Amino acid sequence: MARQAKRNYQFHLTQEELEDVVIHSPLSQKQEAFMQDNESDIIVFGGAKGSGKSQMTLLKMFNAGMFDKDYSAVITMYSQKMIKGAGSLWSTGNKLFTRYGVRSNGLEMNWSFPSGAEIKCHHLLDNQQDFYGFQITHGFVDEAQFTKVDDVWHLITRMRSKSKRKHQLMLTCNPDRNSFLCDWLTRGGYLLESGLPNPDMDGQKVWMIQIGGEFQFFKDRNEITEQFGSEVAGFALRFVFYSANIYDNPWLLKNQPKYVHNLENQKRIDREKNLLGNWYVAEENSGYAKREMFKECPLSDVPLGLPTVRAWDLAATKPSEVNPDPDWTRGVKATYDKADGSFYIMGMDSIRDRSALVQDAIEKAAKQDGREVYVSIPVDSGSAGKTVADQKKARLMKLGHKVVLSSARQSKMKRAEPFLLALQEGKVHVVKGTFSEQDYAEIENFDGAKSNGYHDDIIDAIADAYTTLSSKSLVPTIRIPTDNLSNARRMTGTTLI
Length: 497
What we know:
By secondary structure, this protein is an alpha/beta fold. The protein has 2 domains: 25-275, 3-Layer(aba) Sandwich (Rossmann fold); 291-471, Nucleotidyltransferase, domain 5. It is built from 18 helices and 17 strands. It has helices at residues 15-19, 29-36, 53-65, 80-84, 89-97, 149-154, 180-187, 221-228, 230-233, 250-255, 257-264, 268-275, 355-369, 383-398, 412-424, 437-444, 457-471, 485-492; strands at 42-46, 72-77, 103-105, 110-112, 118-123, 138-141, 168-173, 206-211, 214-218, 237-243, 295-297, 308-313, 329-337, 342-351, 374-379, 403-407, 428-431. The strands form 2 sheets. A 10-stranded mixed beta sheet has the order 3-4-5-2-6-7-1-10-8-9, with helices on both faces. Strands 11-17-14-13-12-15-16 form a 7-stranded mixed beta sheet, sandwiched between helices. A hairpin with a 4-residue loop joins strand 13 (329-337) and strand 14 (342-351). The longest helix is centred in the C-terminal third of the chain and has 16 residues, at 383-398. The chain is elongated. It starts with 14 loop residues before the first helix and ends in a 5-residue tail after the last helix.
C-alpha cells in the first residue's frame, strides 16, 4: 500500500503578517452570549459602564450585514447629537465597516454593505413617524435608559424585513432608576432586592407580553395560556437580560487600566451604579419623599379594627397616539392608628381610561373592599367639580358604601404636607408589593409643582387618604362575637365602637 504524502500544515501567512490581521470577536462569555443569541425577541445587554456594549452592537450588525442581502437594521439613540457625537456608534461604525467595502452616507446617516444589506442611524425621541414604512430585521437602541418606552416599543412594529434571520429588538443600557427598563428588569426577576443583577436569572429567558397597555412577564408560556388563552399566549415575546460590566470586557481591562481604576474609586453611589450595575441606587436629592422612608411590611402586620379608606385621585383619559402617557386614576387603600400616628398603605388600584370605566373601577374596588371601608372622592374647585363629586357619592351610597369628600382646592404641596411630614418621621408603612419601582420613582420625583415632567397621581391619592384618616372622625365597622368578647378585644384594640 502506497504511503500517503504528509500534509503541509504550515499557515499561509507569516507571523509578522498575522500580527496585522484584525480579528473581531467577543472576548468573554457574556459578550458571546449576546452575540450568539438568535432565539430571543428582546435582548437587554449591559447594565454597567465599560462592558463593550457599543462594540458588540456593531459586531452583531457587521456579522449579519456582510452575508445577508435582505438584512436591514436601525440604530437609534435618544437624540441625533448622541448618535453623531465623538466616539459614538456612527463614528465607531465608520472605522469598523468602511475597511470592508461598506459605503457610508453621512448625510442620510446610513451604511450600505456589498451584500445589499442596509443599516440606518436615527434619533428616537418623540419620532415614531420617521420610522413609518421601515422594514427591519434588527432594531438596536443604544443608551436605552434615556428613551421612552412607547418610542422603543414602536420599533417592534417595524420588524418585518424579508431576511430569514430572527427579527430582534436589542437594547444596550446603563442603570437608571427612573427608566422603564428598571421596571422591566424588576418585573422579569432579573434584579435582586438590592438592585444588583440577579446571578440566577442572568441569561435566563422569560416571556413578555403587553396586555391593556401594561407589560407583564411570565416564567412559562403556559402561565399566559392559563390566564389569557392560547391565542394571546401566541403573541408573547421571549425576553432576556445579559448583565455585563467592565470585568466582562478583557480588552478594556488590559488596555485601559486607568479607566478601570476610575470606575473602582468613584463615590459609593456612582460605583454601585456604573461599576456594579445597581439599578436602584440614586443620587441624594432635595425631594421630600424617598423610597427608603417607607417601611415595608407584610399585610399581617397591619392592625385590625382601625378605620380604613380607599382614597381616589381621578383622571379620565385613555392613552392614545396624541397623548400616550396621560394621568392615572389611582385608588390608595390605607388605615391609620391614632394611638401612635402610624399610617399603613395596604394596596393601590390603577386605571387609565374613560370616565365610565373609571367609575366602574371605583365601584368594583368598593365592592371588593367591603362596606366597612370608606371611599374618599376628591372635589375639584368650581361648581362643576362639586357636582361630579356629589354624583359619584350618591351612586356609591346607593350601593351601600360610606363616602367622604376631600377638597382638592389647596395646592398639591399643601395637600401632601401632612403625609410627607409623617413619612419623614418614619410613621408610614406600606404592604410589600403595593408599589413598583416606577411607582416609587414617581413618588420620589414629587416636588409640589404641577408640571415637573412626572406624574403626581400617587402622592395626591396617598395625601387624601392620610388627611381623611388623621383629621376626620371615621368610625370603623367592627363585629364582635358575643361568645368571645375578650378575644375580640385582643384582636381589635382596646377601644371598640
